[in-house]
Design goal:
By secondary structure, the chain is mainly β. Helices cover about 5% and strands about 55% of the residues.
Amino acid sequence: MDEEKSTADYIVIKAKSSGCQVFGLTRGQDTKLHHSEKLDKGEVLIVQFTEHTSGIKVRGKALVMTKHGVVDTEE
């Protein structure tokens, strides 16, 4: 397993309401959506940045937990 990938930081997203959407955004010259997930209330998604993912967008009520702290989307 690649050392960089095995030590990458994870981000935890917990939906506070049903219908919360999480999008993965691509790297490169043009930023595009390459993956999406829809979460129901209470569901948790664990994600990380990869060679293909440079950004993560969250739409809806959720808690986003990182090593830098917790963000509440407050929608």
